[in-house]
Fold this sequence. Notes:
Strand order of the largest sheet of chain B: 6-7-8-3-9-10
Largest sheet of chain A: none
Number of helices of chain B: 13
Helix content of chain B: 25-40%
Number of domains of chain A: 1
Largest interface: A-B, 21 and 25 residues
CATH class of chain A: Mainly Alpha
Shape of chain B: globular
Number of strands of chain A: 0
Oligomer: heterodimer
CATH superfamily of the largest domain in chain B: P-loop containing nucleotide triphosphate hydrolases
Number of domains of chain B: 2
Order of helices and strands of chain A: HHHHHHHHH
CATH architecture of chain A: Orthogonal Bundle
Shape of chain A: elongated
Structural class of chain B: alpha/beta
Largest sheet of chain B: 6 strands, mixed
Radius of gyration of chain B: 24 Å
Amino acid sequence: MTIDWSWIGDHTDDLATLTVSHLQAALSAVLLGVLISLPLAVVAHRVRPLRGFLLGISNVLFTIPSIAIFVLLLPVSGLTRTTTVIGLTVYTLVVLLRNTVEGLDSVPAKTKEAAKAMGTRPLRTLLTVELPLALPVIMAGVRIATVMSISLVSVATYIGDGGLGQLFTDGFQRDFPTPVVAGVVLTILLAVVADAALVAVQYVLTPWQRRRA
Amino acid sequence: MIQFDAVHKRFPNGTTAVHDLTLNMAEGGVTVLVGSSGCGKTTTLRMINRMVEPTSGTIRVGGKDVTRQDAAELRRSIGYVIQQAGLFPHRTVLDNIATVPLLLGHGRRKARARAAELLETVGLTAEAGKRYPHQLSGGQQQRVGVARALAADPPVLLMDEPFGAVDPVVRAQLQDELLRLQRELSKTIVFVTHDIDEAVRLGDRIAIFRTGGHLVQCASPTELLARPADDFVADFLGAERGLKLLSLKTLAAVPQGPAPEGGPWDLVLDAANKPLHWASGDAELPVRPLKDDDSLLSALNESIASPTGLIARVDADGVLTGVSSRDDIHQHAGQAHTEARVAA
Lengths: 213, 344
């Protein structure tokens, strides 16, 4: 297998466009996943009977094969980016929901009690005490969801989207390995960079966790 | 200042935590609630700021029924110090202290300025304010807890076993600091502990609870130690309650005379007339000079440890003023005891 460097040189613009499109799909899904899972996690955390139900649903959704999800969504949103993002979002939910619930569970009862005893109302306690303290566990979920989404975007090639995944079909169809290799390398690179960025974000958001031992 | 009127608390599981409690806590005084675990002392405390709601009866703070006030606003007006401090791990020490002023809408700058002031009040450095709670020792965290409770200058302070988790040396320091603060601030303090020595040390009034949430006796430490209401209270105070009573009396009234000379043991002084040690030939024994405001208990202890049975009395500067004999101390101790027991 030889790499055709001149093909890469000729297609840098295409590669950049596909990379950006790939990242957009993955990040939209994670962002949407966070927005959906956050309120659901708060409900699951506070209302014990609903916890098993919500986590169960997210587990079941996770077991649906990814191609099937895109196919099922076709009648609703067609061959569009929306279909890609919705499909990916469904997969992020299982990790995000579970980690957010666990993050909220991990907040010491004593700290919540202190907030209440100081006269902090429940919503403010959630926003200024519980969520910040749950952040490390939530961020662990966001990192997994992000890397997972970046790798899953390629599957959406079957519905005409798929970002860097388009390079794989292109390479296979023409029996020409260079685009495939470029696609794989760029996908991995994207995942590594996104993960590092999230680690940096977490570092900035949790100053109390630095210098700990 | 704080009035319990026929207050009853039954938990949903059927246990009665507080049984028909009627109790007044005086303004500017320290009321200590003591008893073994499960006696309802903490529940009593937590009903004052509505962390627990009473089943029946009324609780008034400053004349106002607590259940008729907004719970969050009520809590902001009452300082609360929790066991093991309960600090917010994600906020700096300064921001921890600023919690209530911020909730009251004082603005971040003003709240932090107030917090910095309190840092000093509780004996911490400005540098400590920038740290996070986990970077402080247990004793320092407890000080921050006290500062946080004082931040909005509430008239009432609730303290739930605040010094339970620190070692005895640090605990004694924190108790001293609290007494010093209280002399300056005159808050109405309700203090929960299971340690009777702590109660005797800090309380103006001590309320003893028995399992089942019954208040058995509420009295001043002296009265309690001298005249326990029943066997339960006497047992709780322990076999040495006579000695504990002496810890509340000072040495001031015990007569003193000049140090004797020519005995087997001499009291050796330095150039400034400060006691150094007892000496007999080549043998030396340490001396612990006592001031007028030291307790009769420490005097008794020192007189037993002294080779002559004499204790060295000094003024505020540590200069010898005289000595007192074991007999005089003993006689005064007995007298103090009798007086306390027959007093109306």
